[in-house]
């Protein structure tokens, strides 16, 4: 309340204590809101005469640290927290329908273990971790399955037919397994063209293809070329999509 009123908190500890008091309420409010969104989608589908029709959704994960930032620095994974969101593709709003928050951090567990007590996270009293520290943080199969169980907790659960995602197909397997019904994987343009950029940037070109006195200069030129090519290809694709009024078979 103080933060909303633009009153600065007295200290970091104060923010922490406030968070501890309201976090459960905020989680419940968000969960109820997402449940409402799912009900609205059901009602919308019924109004359009598409009751019990599978819907399209998109999903992605965000980490507290970039997953590749630990390379060469630590034998552990860089990220310790993950937020996995599942959004609907039924309305233009693309509301979030389900969220999975994975957390490996647990101060109490670390403290108890340092004192010589045998505790495992998650599971002990007041544990803040939601996933065991030895699991892979980027396991999208588990995260997607958790989101699907969230959908299945409804009285009339939504069924998903298509997933728009990055190249990680593990999520689709996880979700399909949980749902007991195959989901088709669609590629998201952002990630798709970004993989094209990465491939072009490391592709072996002839040594005289890019101008530059040193190797670093030539590599820099290749990276710029890759970025330019990506943007041009994406523009071409989007214009083509518009021109053929989103008729994919005609585009082919
Ligand atoms: Zn713990």
UniProtKB/TrEMBL annotation:
<dbReference type="Pfam" id="PF20700">
    <property type="entry name" value="Mutator"/>
</dbReference>
<dbReference type="InterPro" id="IPR049012">
    <property type="entry name" value="Mutator_transp_dom"/>
</dbReference>
<protein>
    <recommendedName>
        <fullName>Mutator-like transposase domain-containing protein</fullName>
    </recommendedName>
</protein>
<feature type="domain" description="Mutator-like transposase">
    <location>
        <begin position="5"/>
        <end position="242"/>
    </location>
</feature>
């Amino acid at each position: 309340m103080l933060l909303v009123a633009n009153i600065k908190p007295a200290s970091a500890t104060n923010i922490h204590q406030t968070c501890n008091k309201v976090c459960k309420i905020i989680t419940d409010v968000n969960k109820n809101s997402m449940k409402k969104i799912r009900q609205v989608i059901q009602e919308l589908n019924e109004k359009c005469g598409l009751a019990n029709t599978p819907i399209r959704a998109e999903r992605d994960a965000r980490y507290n640290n970039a997953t590749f930032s630990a390379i060469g620095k630590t034998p552990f994974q860089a990220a310790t927290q993950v937020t996995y969101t599942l959004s609907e593709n039924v309305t233009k709003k693309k509301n979030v329908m389900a969220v999975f928050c994975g957390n490996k951090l647990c101060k109490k567990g670390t403290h108890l273990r340092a004192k010589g007590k045998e505790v495992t996270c998650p599971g002990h009293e007041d544990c803040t971790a939601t996933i065991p520290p030895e699991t892979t943080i980027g396991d999208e199969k588990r995260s997607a399955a958790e989101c699907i169980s969230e959908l299945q907790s409804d009285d009339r659960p939504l069924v998903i037919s298509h997933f728009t995602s990055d190249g990680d197909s593990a999520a689709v397997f996880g979700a399909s397994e949980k749902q007991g019904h195959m989901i088709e994987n669609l590629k998201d343009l952002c990630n798709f063209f970004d993989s094209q950029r990465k491939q072009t940037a490391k592709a072996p070109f002839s040594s005289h293809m890019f101008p530059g006195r040193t190797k670093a200069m030539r590599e820099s030129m290749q990276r710029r070329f890759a970025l330019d090519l990506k943007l041009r290809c994406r523009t071409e694709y989007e214009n083509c999509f518009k021109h053929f009024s989103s008729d994919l078979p005609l585009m082919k």
